[in-house]
């Protein structure tokens, strides 16, 4: 899929445009005339598909902010009833209501929008009684505005990022859709439907009027499934009525109820510990250096050891100074440049700082608001433990036995009075907590799992106290494991039976649910 970062354009494959177009048109049965709006026409994939329709007289209105793309799209429309307008959809004004609004809106984060676009977005959301918190990406505003331009029996069909189903700011948008449409259909996919790294997509169909009302979900395993209409849409009441992310629609009501009942019996990470983000450098590649650079510019008196990302700590639950040394031997960047406002700047250090100036790092927002752009605030003390907010095969919580700090790729963890760090880390590695990480977190293209600070703090943990010898044995077993399943098999019964009274059958059930969640995220 072609991606133009400045405009947030992700162009739609023809087979997907064909499926969406045909499904929308089929909803209108024997109607011979209808009006369709495409608010961001792009390369004209939907125009091409709608143009093939012979039985319905389509009055098409196509908009785009890019006049060249608009011309290319217009050349694909051979019918008489159509208008192609160069405009930003946020500024588009009309009294006309459309039978359908169809397309693939741009995906542009708020911080890249112009001030005018931000104000227009706020106004559009406010007019629909939505808060400013829902204005995080331009696709949400396209969705909201598209709804206001639909006729009373209209259909909205958009290709959207999977953020709609799982991120916090989209909760309000989901509730808005439930209120505005009698029927919602969500299509998720096993594979990325576009040739674009990291952008997981869904298709939304929303019907103003419907005989069969409610929210319906299906997961598409292949392109052929769409082309042959080989799928089943399932209704999932418990999912929609709860706080569970809609990405997990493939779980049954019984599974969701089972999990929810267990969650209610447990304390959370926030009950046992304090957690806060790691160090924000604003430019890791500049402020975190390797030993060779440290020696070249004589910076050792200005550096501290640091872990840059979770990729560097695979395979253990304890991080030591020996692990730092191993990373240094691999020439990994492990040294944090820590300067003070009062430091005199010698020639070698000044030479290194000049590279940052050449890369325009002082102009970055977080550097610009510092007294001196090169002085990183809030470094404080090294953490007792850290949890990496992003993971792949399983979430990582490690005890810090080194002198190392950690970047904001992780949350610093400090235990509250009455709770033991070794026991907390041991207790974390059980099937239920890892399952809930999958359920409460969100995932992205490529199978990356992420837990935001609030999601991590709310994560339930069946705390089980162990002694130091048991923790040492656990640490050794963790380092010698073939995979995380080895640890779960070893830990599950002791942790989950003692805290929740779960039987082997219950634990097997949790393992099967976790496998389904993990399989979907990793697209296996």
TrEMBL record:
InterPro entries recorded: DNA_methylase_N6_adenine_CS, M_Eco57I_C, MethylTrfase_TaqI-like_dom, N4_N6_ade-DNA_methylase, SAM-dependent_MTases_sf
Start and end residues of each Type II methyltransferase M.Eco57I C-terminal domain: 244-496
One annotated GO biological process: methylation
Substrates-to-products reaction catalysed: a 2'-deoxyadenosine in DNA + S-adenosyl-L-methionine = an N(6)-methyl-2'-deoxyadenosine in DNA + S-adenosyl-L-homocysteine + H(+)
The UniProt record lists the keyword rRNA-binding: no
EC id: 2.1.1.72
Domain Type II methyltransferase M.TaqI-like: 53-191
Signal peptide segment: none
Family, per entry: Belongs to the N(4)/N(6)-methyltransferase family.
Name this polypeptide is given: site-specific DNA-methyltransferase (adenine-specific)
């Amino acid at each position: 899929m072609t991606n133009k970062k400045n405009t947030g354009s992700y162009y739609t494959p023809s087979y997907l445009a064909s499926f969406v177009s045909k499904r929308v048109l089929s909803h209108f049965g024997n109607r011979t005339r209808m009006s369709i709006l495409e608010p961001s026409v792009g390369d004209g994939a939907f125009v091409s598909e709608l143009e093939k329709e012979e039985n319905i007289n389509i009055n098409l209105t196509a908009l785009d902010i890019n006049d060249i793309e608009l011309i290319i799209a217009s050349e694909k429309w051979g019918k008489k009833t159509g208008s192609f307008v160069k405009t930003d959809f946020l500024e588009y004004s009309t009294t006309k209501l459309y039978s359908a609004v169809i397309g693939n809106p741009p995906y542009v984060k708020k911080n890249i929008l112009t001030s005018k676009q931000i104000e227009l977005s706020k106004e559009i959301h406010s007019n629909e009684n939505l808060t400013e918190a829902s204005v995080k990406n331009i696709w949400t505003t396209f969705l909201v505005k598209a709804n206001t331009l639909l006729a009373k029996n209209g259909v909205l069909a958009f290709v959207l990022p999977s953020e709609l189903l799982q991120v916090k700011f989209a909760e309000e948008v989901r509730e808005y859709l439930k209120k505005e449409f009698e029927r919602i259909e969500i299509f998720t996919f096993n594979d990325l439907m576009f040739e674009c790294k990291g952008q997981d997509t869904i298709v939304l169909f929303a019907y103003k009027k419907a005989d069969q009302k409610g929210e319906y979900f299906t997961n598409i395993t292949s392109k052929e499934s769409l082309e042959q209409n080989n799928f089943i849409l399932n209704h999932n009441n418990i999912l929609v009525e709860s706080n569970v992310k809609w990405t997990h629609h493939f779980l049954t009501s019984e599974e969701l109820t089972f999990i929810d009942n267990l969650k209610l019996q447990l304390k959370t990470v926030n009950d046992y510990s304090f957690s806060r983000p790691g160090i924000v450098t604003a430019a890791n590649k500049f402020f975190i250096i390797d030993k060779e650079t440290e020696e070249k510019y004589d910076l050792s008196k200005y550096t501290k050891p640091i872990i840059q990302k979770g990729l560097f700590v695979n395979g253990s639950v304890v991080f030591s100074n020996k692990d730092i040394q191993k990373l240094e031997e691999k020439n990994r960047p492990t040294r944090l440049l820590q300067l003070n406002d009062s430091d005199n700047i010698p020639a070698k250090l000044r030479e290194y700082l000049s590279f940052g100036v050449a890369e325009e790092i002082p102009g970055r927002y977080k550097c610009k608001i510092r007294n001196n752009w090169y002085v990183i605030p809030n470094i404080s003390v090294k953490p007792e433990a850290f949890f990496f907010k992003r993971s792949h095969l399983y979430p990582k919580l490690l005890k810090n036995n080194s002198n190392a700090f950690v970047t904001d790729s992780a949350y610093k963890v400090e235990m509250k009075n009455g709770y033991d760090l070794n026991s907390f880390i041991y207790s974390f590695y059980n099937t239920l907590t890892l399952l809930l990480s999958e359920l409460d977190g969100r995932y992205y293209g490529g199978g990356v799992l992420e837990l935001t600070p609030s999601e991590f703090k709310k994560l339930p943990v069946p705390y089980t106290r162990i002694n130091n010898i048991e923790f040492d044995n656990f640490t050794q077993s963790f380092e010698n494991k073939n995979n995380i399943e080895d640890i779960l098999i070893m830990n599950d019964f002791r942790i989950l039976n003692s805290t929740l009274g779960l039987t082997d059958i219950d634990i097997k059930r949790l393992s099967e649910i976790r496998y389904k969640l993990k399989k979907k995220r990793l697209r296996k």
